Amino acid sequence: MNQIGRYLLRNLTVATLFVTVGLAAAIWLTQSLRLVQLVVEGGAPFAMFLKMAVLTFPTFLSLVLPIALLSAVLFTYNKLTMDSELVVMRAAGLGPMALARPALLLGLGVALVCYALTVSIGPAAQRELVRMREEVRSEYSAVLLREGTFNDVGEGLTVYIRERGRNGELRGLLIHDIRSPEAQTTIVAEYGMLMDVGDNPRVVVSNGTQMKFYEPTGKLEWLEFGRYTVDLQVLRKQLGTRWPDPRERPIGELFRISNDPLDQEFKSRLRAELHSRLSTPLLALAFTVIAMCALLPGEFSRRGRASRIAGAAVAALVLQSAVLGVANLVGKNPTLTPLLYATCILPTVLGLWYMKNWRIVRRALSRRLAPPAPAAAE
């Protein structure tokens, strides 16, 4: 690659990185809000929140990169045009295909990164993220007790905490248990400590009173204690078996679908996920070619190319929507799978052909759109 090519590639790479960071940060913030709610309500440590936040990046980065590349190509080539640098390059004998080569090289690199994300890194991150979410809901649900609120932690069990202290200390507890049909139990204590005993969540309360009322006989028992243990196993949610989402599956499982009844029932969804992973990274090249078709062919104009930039953005949006729509249709009708690949590949092929033959296309269009010559007078 010559010096001009390296110059273009460097500018394109820097712009792509900046746009990617900006878009990824905006999307990450929206995803983090959900994680904050999950972690705060579940009581998980801050380190787990950070780990889950990092795991969200690969799940959406494959969607951000092609859009960032499109924006970077449009910005870079438009800036070069406005600064007359592109005019000088053209005067030096560089045609649209030569000027497009660095962007195509970067687009190929981005497509390879997207393949790594969709085929391997993304599914692995999604599996770990789902596992950690289930762990928060299961392991840390025992600290779902909010202070100053009557917490209905299970059917027939209510817990009130006046104040939470450090290291799991609880102050001003009231526990009302009506799960037993024979007796209603109410415990009032000054202090308590939430802890796991034998992997079961329990509250060890101190300096309190237990009142047990037997409704059939009307008998009331009163017990003052210095230390008492209350089993809160109901707080720990038991998670049943779950059918793994297609987005979590390794690529090998999508190629070789098991004989599991659920896998066979949703076989079309698994196949659609496989073809979506293999086709959507090609959008990086398609978006690159769309941007270059908008800016490289044609004559130079100092008035800018806002209409062309807007047209490229709309075309990319339409293409992205078409790919998502066809991918959904493939899940219902597998015979449409070739259409999915065609939707991702044809824009690249047609765009490269147009950049190479744009003068012929323009002349053909001008002849077709030209008004007919007036008939000669007899």
Automatic annotation (TrEMBL):
The lineage of its organism: Bacteria, Pseudomonadati, Pseudomonadota, Alphaproteobacteria, Rhodospirillales. The keyword Transport does not apply. Keywords: Cell membrane, Membrane, Transmembrane, Transmembrane helix. It is found in: Cell membrane. It comes from the Bacteria. GO terms for biological process: lipopolysaccharide transport; transmembrane transport. It comes from Aerophototrophica crusticola. The keyword Transmembrane applies. InterPro entries: LptF, LptG/LptF_permease. Pfam families: LptF_LptG (PF03739). This is LPS export ABC transporter permease LptF. It is a multi-pass membrane protein. The chain crosses the membrane at residues 7-29, 49-77, 98-118, 278-297, 309-330, 336-355. GO terms for cellular component: ATP-binding cassette (ABC) transporter complex.
